[in-house]
Fold these 2 entries.
Entry 1:
Amino acid sequence: MVPFRAKVLAYRQGMRALKLAAAILPFPKPTLLTGPDSSLQLCDTIEQFGFKRVLIVTDSVLTKIGLINPIQQQLSGNHIESFIYDGVIPDPGFDQVYQGLEELTHYRCDCILAIGGGSSIDCAKLISALANNSQDLDKLGGFFKIRAECIPLFAIPTTAGTGSEVSIGAVVSNPHTHKKMMVVDLKLTPIAAAIDGKIMIGVPPSITAATGMDALTHAIEAYISRNATKETDRYALAATRLIFKNLKAAYDDGHNIEARQNMALASCYAGLAFTKASLGYTHAIAHRFGERYQIPHGLANAIALPHILEFSKDATEKRLSELALYCNIGASGSDETKATIFIAKIRELISSLEISAKLPELEAKDIPNIAKEALEEAHFNFPVPKYMDTRQCEYVISSMLDRC
Ligand SMILES: [Fe+2]
């Protein structure tokens, strides 16, 4: 059996290759329109780029509440025909992608506009990937497997969380394996996106809380990643501070436009940070909670994040203390003290958002498999600051048991 230390060396080498790729590859950055009503401006941008027929990819809740109407009117005012595919469901699977692709082909659209949370944007990314490609969707899992150019994609996020509007990744549920499949490719990046806090006014508090915690996890995991760079640090620091200042305010008062706009920006910055620096164990465990118990992604991250930060604290206390300083949390004391205070503040924030610190659905008998699958994902994808073996991972997950 290969000793754990030798395995870690191999994992680190793989992650160094990823860092090199991130430094060399020409990561596209979408044009960002920001501010209230920038979603309407984005419709003008679509016209400026010469597109005539848009497939709007969204979910039925947003069409029912009329959120799409002003956007369609703005497109129509720009002499652009728009068609709606609103079959996206939370954690979409292959069916939703293929249905959207059929609509795209049927209406002969020349671009896609994704409107919604991460599920809609990710689904739209994969529809765009298959539009000019004869590859099967289940062959696209992993890094840089999309052969042909994607059909142009625009995005209007309606939640402040995933950062999918600026990332090179998309997640889809694979019906064959019942696992979440990650597709990572530079070609998936939208051309332009609107960071419009006003469009997020109607998001319920519980979703505001969960998606905001997803963004916070992106920022922190990117900052403590071994693949962090000066560029990703800037985005991660800005995102973390914005979230500490604005998430509770947006949760308390959904009509607080300033807080909504700042959270929309924070989510975008966190997306820019993790798309190059990558993520960590929190996401690897949260993905398992999503697959096994259908726990919303942001909620799963919120539960796992403090536990993972505690585990890796001795390896990350300097980085956590920098985050604490930047956010004006625990400005005095040693790095260890500041890191401890920072983790305590995260727990405080989670509690103030009425998110449980434990996972009632988690069963002790499931922990070995959850740990095994989480480590498989993390060790081949995420440049974590401190590696854990199976026993340590099982122990960390067991601390999330409700009865613990
Ligand atoms: Fe996430």
Note: The pocket of fe (ii) ion is lined by residues 214, 218, 283, 297 (CB under 6 Å).
Entry 2:
Amino acid sequence: MLTKITVGSLETNCYVLSDDETSDAVIIDPGADGDMIIEHIKQLGLKPGLILNTHGHFDHIGANAAVKDEFDIDLMIHGNDVMLLSEAKSHAAGFGFPGTPSPGPNHTFKDGETITLGSMKLTVVHTPGHTPGCVCFYKEDEALLVTGDTLFAGSVGRTDLPGGSFPTLIDSLRTKIMPFDDNVRVLPGHGPGSTIGHEKRTNPYLVELREEG
Ligand SMILES: [Zn+2]
Ligand SMILES: [Zn+2]
């Protein structure tokens, strides 16, 4: 089962992926509103086993501490974004928001790594550009791609924040996102969902890459 909870001032999408048989659950980007996320998980009777972050920005990690404390589970993020976890307060202040720093990760993952929880398998796809440690999570059996702030419906993540790089982002889109099949569902960090096919046809950044290829 896939559920989405939209949290915080920047309306970040927190996704909960769970195994229908065992109720094992992965929580992706608990960005804020920890109480709401915890309540949601308890109401569904899920057994949370892992917290994953698509990247280290404050609006994606703000409830890491609350959710980790409540369920006593591991936290994972790409190594390149670990520094951002402790900088959430100052980063958020730059946007005029309070920020909650995150505890450090129990594990830092790398491109291509498979994360397993019960029978669930997610592949880490490193897509730097918005931040150096941005990743997408691909669940092959359900053709789901959680894209964080790398790819949105109709747009891509900004690259003007510290550590961001537009050429790096375009390279990630070209080499990591374009190869996905059209039927793969896109679950972005903000805003509505989409599919890879729809984005290849309508997202100006992907249209341009399709035309050059
Ligand atoms: Zn971000
Ligand atoms: Zn964001």
Note: The two ends are 35 Å apart (CA to CA).
